Amino acid sequence: MNQEKIQELQFLEQGMQNLSHQKQRFETELVEIENALNEVSKTSSKPYKVVNGVMFATSPEDLKKELSSKKEIISIRVKNIDKQEQEIRKKAESLQKEVLKELKK
Question: What is the number of alpha carbons within 13 Å of residue 81 lying toward its C-beta?
């Protein structure tokens, strides 16, 4: 029984690490989007975007809309990861207490 709980704790820890890596990638992407939005706002020239390795001219308004939409989606993903992390952390803490109780017996 203890061994199963210890394995479950290890599994939860691995899940936390995976979520942490995902969150880090999304947060990096958010910073890049913020920087792009700032640059689009500063420039008076026509911006370009790259789609499948091909560069296309686009209007600043369309690009801002696209970037803002991406930003919103990624922000939601980060919030969902935060919730998942909290749930896993609570479960891991509870399980850890159980294991420690049993080990003290």
Answer: 19
pLDDT at 93: 93
Task: Spell 40-60 as b/e; 16+ CB within 10 A means b.
Answer: beeeeeebeeeeeeeeeebee
- What whole-number distance in Å separates Cα of residue 28 and Cα of residue 49? 19
Please give the residue range of the domain that contains residue 11. 2-104
- Model confidence pLDDT, tens digit, residues 42-69: 988 889 898 899 999 999 999 999 999 9
Number of domains in the chain: 1
CATH code at position 96: 1.10.287.370
Contacts of 92 (CB under 8 A, 6+ apart): 9, 12, 13, 16
Give every CB contact of residue 77 below 8 A, 6+ residues apart in sequence: 26
Q: CA-CA distance, 96 to 104, in Å (whole number)? A: 12
